[in-house]
# Entry
Amino acid sequence: MKYFMANWKMNGDRSFWYNLAEQTAEQAKKFKADRFVIFPPFVALADVENALFEADKNMFLGAQDVSDEESGAFTSQVSADMLKGMGCSYVLVGHSECREYLGQPDELLALKVKAAQEKGLKVVLCIGETLDEYENKESIQVVVSQLEKCLEVSKSPELLAVAYEPVWAIGTGKVATVEDIKPIFESIKKTLLDKFGAKGDNVALLYGGSVKADNATEIFSVDEINGVLVGGASLDATSFVDIARSAQF
Ligand code: 13P
# Structure
């Protein structure tokens, strides 16, 4: 099974979300063996859930962030229980834009992973190095450290996927080469095996950063990669589902 995950970020409006969800679900039906997950903005969750309601069982709903707290006086935050109530089964944790613009450190992300998994949500943990770190050849060291810190208190490899998204490849049109990616995914896999034993082998690994139909075949040629996390190209149903089409080869 391959995973195709759509991170819509802070894009669109009410009619756009509904139409995009419907069109994506319609086109994704052809790829029954694969799993599609849509991460719309929080305010779109109800509409997107309605649009997906009739869809095939290969479409799932997720949120772009989750609070580490259960409930209470935490203005602006959204809890794991609330997300479940809206029909979410997935949540992104640690996207580089949340790390950078919301100042979310690894220690907080570890608590978010735990809070989400305790409620049965599947966490897609995002990790990735900056351009400076990449140029200084620190990529492996940075992603392994993020992974170890963010999983410090997680006990649920069965509720985990890891998305490696080099920050310098997000929204830039620059895609990491297979030579760049391969050793990083090997290190991620080793870290998961060290932490979770044999169960670490079942954690799905995704690549993200300027993924499009014309580079998907190459990305999926890396053995360790089970899926992709797509930003810009997921804002059009055809360009998103075309990625699944390319990945069949
Ligand atoms: P782009 O596909 O637009 O580069 O975004 C990737 C991303 O950040 C997905 O989470």
